[in-house]
Amino acid sequence: MNAPPSRTFGEPRGARCTRPHEVTSRKHHWGQPVARTLTSTRGNTGMGAVLRVPGMPAVFTAHAVSMAGTLAAEVALSILVFQRTSSAFLSALVLVCSFLPYAVGGTLLSSLADRFPPRRVLVCCDLLSAACIATMLIPGLPVPALLGLLLVTGFVAPLFQGARAAGLSHLLGADLFPVGRSLLRTISQSAVVSGFALGSVLVAAIGPLWLLACDATSFLLSAALIGWCTQATPAADPDGERTLRSVISASADGLRHLRANPPLRRLIQLTWAVPGFSAVGDGLAVAYTAQAGAPVTTAGVLFTGYAAGTVLGELIVARMRPKTRGSLVLPLVLLSQLPLICFAFGPPLPMAAALLLLSGAGFACNQGIDPLILAGSEPALRGRLFTIQTSGLMTVQGVVIAVSGALGSHTRPGLVIAVFGVLGALTVLWLAWRSPAAKWGVR
Fold it and tell me: Which of 4, 93, 143, 325 could disulfide-link 368, Cβ–Cβ 3.0 to 4.6 Å?
């Protein structure tokens, strides 16, 4: 479990504007969402302001708990599959099954994020994931069944993230919404820095099955925090049909909306391209470590470099004024790609980690892009659009990592990273150039 708004760009017909210093939130009262007004000021738009909104600490605590459990469980499941099969291929399929379902689940089920209240969707997704992980604990369960259960959890993940973003858009004001999504990304990257290492230690200490049990518990705890400690928000499209056929048809409305709205489509594609191309550094980290003549066991410094850069960038940009964040979109998207070009010269491992840190810091561009996406989208379609955004991001990352890995087996990994850096810089520059709001920071 890895986002905004003023109404000057891409104003959809019939969209409701909010006054500059006034935003609408919801307060849970006897199970019903009751409208109330929150005041937002330009001088109070950092992460502390987000955490002071009622229910927000529970949202971020739930994310941290489930994220830590998920990362540790990936390590546990990979080891468990390898122990049962001695197959490196089947063990690697654990990560593939974590990426693959995003494209399908985000495309077919995205409308559920709009047709049901976000909090109900979140709790149901958490409970389904907990049930799947708990089923993995059945002794002697075949490996195909383990992978199938993992696919189900991946299938609902984009729906969960889309519904959560839709809920945040109700609870947070125009200036706080991008900071809220930034905080989610910061938690995710912090978990990446520590989660895999902690998972390895815990597997050695308590075994993979107990670690999977902890993951199931983390989903239950997340469901409890969201269900009992967060505010209720209304469904964006509560009157839509809820049959499977209508859900799939309505999910396609989000794709049609993007096709008919080029500025919005390019903004979402920009959020895919930035991490999609820069993920090559992570995908080839082990191979590049070997190319640099260092022990492959030290490859973790490259993984840590990118994740630490992401956290650092998010924290710095979150402290800036909303207008400043918007004006930094173009510099930050270029920062995410340009450092990768230096890998063509084969920098030593410490310098390579510093380059990835700079690249990761560029991911904070989303704090300027997210308000533009929210302002340019129809309110009734936001859950679908955020689900599609998450699905596309994960799919693009998976494809690029796979392609770069194949190329890295035939040529120098550093050269492959540099080539993708060039391609990424040209792509994000073109997308930003075709999106005047992203190009000039218009809000």
Answer: 325
